[in-house]
């Protein structure tokens, strides 16, 4: 088991853990734990649209119409501007619902992280903040999610050196503590 880095950072400072609200993060892009409709919901999704305002929803509607009339599948990610948020962009990704994907949950959760990181790189963005995707309403056990998310991020960062900061934002200190006990960062 990994020992907590004294300053909450991993991978030479490229990953940073914080407790806070994802909508308050001043980074190039924040990630929204969206649902397939892309039209808003509860938790992170509700907060992003509430704080970000209607511009984000309008772009999501257009993405649905033009690219995903059936909804955004789990594991995939799309990008919009960030309206009134302090970030410049929002990447919307759909986490897996735990127990609903025939054992492909970990693969799909890893895909959420990797596809979001890839979109950030493709858009020349250097800093990104993630919430703990799927660990709320979607029921993913936080310990399992920590292992999968950290592994996916570590693998991606090994291939992409333009990203200077991946910030992992936990709503509560107790959520961060679970992550610290179960992550795979080396
Ligand atoms: P999902 O539907 O993918 O499970 P949720 O939004 O329900 O997404 O929750 C994902 C995680 O984000 C949970 O751990 C939840 O406590 C946390 N969370 C909820 N609101 C916020 C917020 N405003 N900022 C950061 N984390 C949040």
CATH topology, which one? Leucine Aminopeptidase, subunit E, domain 1
CATH superfamily: Leucine Aminopeptidase, subunit E, domain 1
What is the rounded Rg?
Answer: 15 Å
CATH structural class: Alpha Beta
Beta strand count: 7
Average pLDDT, all residues: 96
N-to-C SSE series? EEEHHEEHEHEH
Q: Could you give the order of strands across the largest sheet? A: 1-2-7-6-3-5-4
Q: In this structure, how is the largest beta sheet organized?
A: 7 strands, mixed
Bound molecules: adenosine-5'-diphosphate
Dominant shape: globular
CATH architecture classification name: 3-Layer(aba) Sandwich
The low-confidence runs, each spanning 5 or more residues with pLDDT under 50, are 1-5
* Tally of structural domains: 1
Number of helices: 5
What percent strand? 15-25%
Q: Classify the helix fraction into a percent range.
A: 25-40%
What's the end-to-end separation, in Å?
Answer: 10 Å
Summing up helix and strand content along with how strands pair, one would put the structural category as alpha/beta
